[in-house]
Design a protein that fits this description.
201 residues
Length: 201
């Protein structure tokens, strides 16, 4: 026998589906960010010696080849193993979380983080002095900025800027913009229901 359904019972939430567009964009952004990072590092390491400086726009923008055992912008030097583990954890989390993303903006943000994290962790796993403690190649120097960085760092910082923009615009992972619900007085709602149900009204 079919069970009677309560018309006042809340409807079950629709099951969320994967978004091929969002997943495809996330993957494409990650591949492009990773590819640009690795190609530029290859060009720098094969054409420059460590500490070489090549002006691009005078002192405003220079190529300055250095190696960095720390995090982005030469922070946390001496903690390379920990940074490697954290970066791998970030990569695993994004890959696991990606199917829940349906917003193209959030897909771009996570793709930038994924590509940047994978770019720098590749250095830590494959470059001297050894596996897990390899030094990251940095080469972009901007006048007035206190650290030298690379395109992986640019991708991660750009992702943080996009994160702030999406959060300020209140855009959810599903691509919809959240709107605060107005407070409703339960007594008023009940009175309206009773009034509408009264045939004499």
């Amino acid at each position: 026998m079919a069970r009677a359904t309560d018309p006042d019972a809340p409807e079950a939430a629709p099951r969320r589906r994967l978004s091929p567009r969002a997943l495809g964009l996330l993957a494409a952004v990650a591949v492009v960010a990773y590819g640009v990072d690795q190609v530029t590092k290859f060009l720098v390491t094969t054409n420059l010696e460590i500490n070489d400086v090549v002006p691009l726009l005078g002192e405003a923008l220079q190529l300055h080849y250095v190696t960095n055992p720390g995090a982005a912008f030469s922070l946390a030097t001496g903690f390379t193993w920990i940074l490697s583990i954290v970066a791998i954890g970030v990569i695993v989390f994004i890959v696991w979380f990606a199917p829940r993303i349906r917003s193209l903006g959030w897909a771009t943000m996570f793709g930038l983080v994924l590509g940047g994290a994978f770019g720098n962790v590749t250095d830590r796993l494959s470059r001297p002095p050894g596996f897990g403690v390899g030094h990251v190649v940095d080469f972009i120097q901007v006048w007035g900025f206190p650290a030298i960085f690379n395109f992986a760092d640019v991708a991660v910082v750009s992702a943080m800027g996009l994160f702030l923009l999406l959060s300020l615009r209140n855009i959810g992972l599903d691509g919809t913009r959240g709107v605060p619900e107005k407070a409703v007085d339960p007594s008023t709602t009940s009175a309206e229901k009773n009034t509408s149900a009264d045939p004499a009204s």
